[in-house]
């Protein structure tokens, strides 16, 4: 299917004549009530999410895999030899030994684990054996060539298994299913289906939604997806607890933990500055055991991504020189090994049952060219609204010290994502926000750390607090070129853009093009919809996550309303790099927290002008003739006005008036209600009246500890609240589905109260005291509620009179 899609993209240049022909092919009659016919309205939307998590192993240096791998490596031996002979400065070895020491911590981020292979059940062993194949669809080809990576000799010369935590979770589920006699076929079937939802991809563990949620006002819209995501997080926590107990990790001095954390760990960044890029990939690039037919090929692809992004950031230095931001040869080169692939975010995908169903028809009048034409324009419209999400619903607070403000490092991938004009404006405003000036002269660090620290201390330069630094530390969306616009509605346009980016040395055509809001095409995904990839960390898996999902659905539906009514066409948002950059600077400005941005007074972006007409306090810029100065806060308020005015009927349909009221609170009082404000408050605590009074490293270390300890427990408690709701409804048995499942519940609980058991298990788990038997029972209860969720999600098909397959699966 994917190879056919590539061929189509390269050869098919069909493009619909206009929006009217697209909606006619979709079967929408403008003479009838428009709203009820549009995609993503009513209960048409489906949703799923992908979460990237942070994994750590807690333990001593002699018992955890990561420090052992470093100490036994050829790199470490060669470094010691070269240091003794004087070929290498002693400082490098000293820094590596300091990393390995246990003076400060026994936390080893992204370490693998090792345990006796005999601990695996027969079923788990079968799963492992299959995942170690070179090609899972062709077992006759034998095992992977890197088989020795997963085999080590443990105590008493016993064979031990060595795997990353991302794969450990899947093995734990397989072991659970193999270690118990589940008489309930439904639960065993559900459990086996979940195995492929745990991806061993990239560095961080990734999970996909266990089922696709149908979003409707009756089911709570985005809260349904938030519930699924929270329960999946809890289920993952339980599986890791199972592994710690049943695989003997705790006995071996290893405690595996998993949680949400948006940034590459500080210690991993430190290590990355010491070791070569090839050794970094060896330690931290995932082997891709799960989720891929040819895991070694996928692993090689991830290595390619790491090399390309590292090279891309180096190439950004030349662009900064061209932009006039670097004016001399005093630069600190970014490391040739980039840690951006260890950033962790959340992706929220929404699908349209209407768009999917019509494309499943044989000889459908609505084809890939119509989907692409509408999809690209929808993405352009959505990008104008993205500032409503950054820092408001998700965030990634990060402290930068004065010594960090080398533009070649702190601006990250922005030179590839913004036009030079906007990049210069952005950098000037950021330096002003960070107070990088002395006696009226802007001052940035020189490079030598001692000198920079002296300047910082003597001139009281504290650096900056960035509300969502992840959005700068990762390539979110590359800028189009003049010859290859990414959103002009033409099939194959993004393949052409990738070729241009390859020529510029910033990308590789084998990689998937990074985008804020990505069209998920039916031909490649099996569903038609969009993926929001701009989310960092959600402090609250209920309010923040569900609110962001609802807002994404509302804006997507509004985009289709704009298009169907002819209010916004492709020509209203021209496909030029400058116009792209003009709207994207607003999003990045929100992420950094700078107060204003500048828009060309004669901008050709008519949709942006429509928004600016609703924006207060705009004035002509004195610094930049021909430009308007706009406050981010006022721009976001204008977007909110637009949603209330142009989307009034959609807001009423979805019942989203409380959503917009809450959004207004987040915008007006961000320190108290926004995601960034609440996270900063929790991280800083009572340590200082202002986070800027904290040392940058102290703040960032406090953030990592907060994510690992307090926030992890808070997310678990929220998930337990969702689970309690399910169990109470199950025990009540008021619905037909619950009545049918009550015998299974009684069999699991042996006629004891599930809600009472859940409350007790919750306290034991939060205090790391949950035993093996109650743990297995709780896992089985969650399998039962997942079975229930799937039944409820399929209870109300999209259109009972339609003969098309209404399976909403989007993964």
Summarize the structure.
The chain is of the alpha+beta class and 811 residues long. It has a domain at 41-52 and 308-704.
- Biggest sheet statistics: 7 strands, antiparallel
Radius of gyration: 27 Å
Count the DSSP helices: 31
Helix content: 40-55%
Q: Which percent range describes the beta-strand content?
A: 5-15%
Q: Class by helix and strand content?
A: alpha+beta
* Unreliable residue runs: 1-12, 796-811
Distance between the termini: 14 Å
Task: Compute the number of strand runs.
Answer: 20
Q: What sort of overall outline do the alpha carbons produce when their principal axes are compared? A: globular
Would you tell me the overall average pLDDT? Answer: 90
Name a few traits of the molecule:
811 residues, alpha+beta, three-stranded antiparallel β-sheet, 49% helix, globular, disordered N terminus
Give a written overview of the molecule.
The protein has 811 residues and is an alpha+beta fold. The chain has a domain at 41-52 and 308-704. Helices cover 49% and strands 10% of the residues. It is built from 31 helices and 20 strands. Strands 1, 7, 8, 9, 11, 16 and 17 form a 7-stranded antiparallel β-sheet that branches. Strands 3-2-10 form a 3-stranded antiparallel β-sheet. α14 (368-385) packs across α20 (543-564). The longest helix is centred in the last third of the chain and has 37 residues, at 696-732. 49% of the residues are buried. The model is unreliable at 1-12 and 796-811 (pLDDT under 50).
């Amino acid at each position: 299917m994917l190879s056919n899609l590539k061929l189509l993209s390269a050869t098919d240049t069909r493009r619909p004549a206009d929006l009217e022909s697209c909606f006619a092919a979709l079967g929408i009659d403008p003479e009838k009530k428009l709203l009820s016919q549009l995609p993503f309205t009513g209960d048409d939307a489906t949703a799923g999410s992908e979460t990237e998590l942070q994994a750590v192993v807690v333990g001593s240096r002699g018992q955890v895999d990561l420090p052992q791998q470093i100490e036994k490596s050829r790199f470490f031996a060669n470094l010691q030899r070269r240091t003794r002979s004087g070929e290498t400065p002693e400082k490098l070895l000293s820094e590596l030994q300091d990393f390995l020491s246990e003076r400060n911590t026994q936390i080893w981020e992204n370490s693998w684990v090792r345990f006796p292979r005999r601990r695996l059940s027969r079923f788990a062993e079968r799963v492992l054996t299959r995942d170690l194949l070179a090609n899972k669809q062709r077992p006759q080809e034998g095992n992977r060539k890197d088989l020795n990576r997963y085999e080590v000799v443990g105590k008493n010369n016993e064979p031990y298994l060595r795997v990353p935590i991302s794969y450990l979770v899947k093995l734990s589920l397989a072991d659970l299913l193999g270690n118990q006699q589940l008489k309930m076929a439904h639960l065993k079937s559900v459990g086996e289906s979940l195995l492929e939802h745990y991806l061993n991809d990239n560095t961080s563990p990734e999970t996909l939604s266990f089922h696709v949620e149908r979003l409707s006002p009756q089911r709570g819209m985005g809260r349904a997806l938030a519930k699924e995501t929270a329960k999946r997080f809890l289920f993952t926590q339980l599986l890791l607890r199972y592994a710690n107990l049943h695989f003997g990790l705790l006995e071996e001095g290893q405690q595996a933990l998993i949680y949400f954390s948006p940034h590459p760990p500080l210690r991993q960044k430190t290590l990355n500055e010491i070791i070569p890029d090839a050794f970094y990939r060896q330690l931290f690039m995932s082997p891709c055991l799960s989720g891929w037919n040819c895991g070694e090929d996928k692993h090689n692809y991830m290595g390619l991504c790491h090399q390309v992004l590292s090279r891309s950031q180096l190439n950004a230095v030349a662009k900064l020189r061209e932009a006039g931001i670097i004016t001399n040869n005093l630069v600190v080169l970014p490391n040739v090994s980039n840690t951006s692939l260890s950033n962790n975010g959340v992706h929220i995908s929404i699908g349209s049952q209407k768009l999917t169903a019509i494309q499943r028809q044989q000889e459908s009048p609505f084809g890939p060219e119509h989907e692409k034409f509408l999809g690209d324009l929808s993405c352009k419209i959505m990008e104008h609204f993205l500032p409503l999400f950054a820092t408001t619903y998700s965030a990634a607070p990060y402290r930068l010290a004065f010594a960090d403000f080398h533009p070649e490092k702190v601006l990250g991938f922005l030179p590839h994502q913004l036009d030079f004009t906007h990049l210069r404006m952005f950098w000037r405003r950021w330096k002003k926000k960070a107070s990088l000036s002395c006696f009226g002269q802007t001052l940035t660090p020189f490079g030598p750390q001692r000198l920079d620290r002296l300047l910082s201390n003597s001139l009281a330069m504290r650096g900056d607090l960035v509300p969502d630094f992840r959005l700068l530390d990762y390539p979110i969306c590359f800028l189009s070129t003049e010859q290859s616009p990414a959103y002009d509605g033409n099939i194959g346009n993004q393949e052409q853009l990738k070729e241009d980016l390859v020529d510029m040395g910033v990308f590789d055509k084998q990689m998937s093009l990074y985008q804020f809001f990505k069209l998920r095409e039916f031909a490649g995904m099996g569903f038609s919809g969009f993926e929001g990839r701009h989310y960092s960390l959600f402090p609250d898996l209920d309010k923040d996550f569900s609110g962001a999902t609802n807002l994404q659905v509302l804006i997507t539906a509004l985009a289709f309303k704009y298009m169907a009514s002819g209010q916004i066409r492709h020509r209203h948002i021209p496909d030029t790099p400058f116009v792209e950059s003009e709207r994207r600077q607003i999003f990045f400005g929100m992420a950094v927290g700078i107060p204003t941005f500048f828009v060309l007074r004669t901008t050709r972006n008519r949709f942006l002008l429509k928004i600016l007409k609703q924006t207060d306090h705009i004035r002509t810029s004195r610094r930049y003739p021909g430009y308007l100065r706009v406050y981010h806060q006022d721009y976001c308020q204008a977007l909110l006005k637009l949603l209330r005015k142009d989307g009034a009927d959609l807001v009423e349909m979805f019942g989203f008036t409380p959503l917009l009221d809450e959004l207004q609170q987040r915008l007006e009082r961000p320190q108290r209600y926004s995601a960034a404000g609440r996270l900063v408050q929790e991280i800083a605590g009572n340590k200082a009246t202002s986070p800027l009074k904290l040392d940058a490293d102290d703040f960032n270390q406090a953030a990592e500890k907060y994510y690992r300890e307090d926030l992890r427990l808070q997310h678990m408690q929220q998930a337990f609240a969702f689970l309690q709701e399910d169990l109470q409804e199950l025990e009540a048995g008021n619905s037909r589905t619950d009545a049918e499942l009550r015998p299974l519940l009684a069999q699991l609980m042996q006629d004891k109260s599930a809600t009472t058991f859940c409350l007790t298990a919750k306290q034991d788990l939060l205090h790391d005291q949950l035993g093996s038997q109650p743990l297995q029972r709780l896992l089985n209860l969650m399998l039962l509620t997942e079975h229930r969720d799937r039944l409820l999600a399929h209870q109300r098909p999209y259109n009972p009179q339609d003969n098309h397959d209404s399976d909403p699966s989007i993964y």
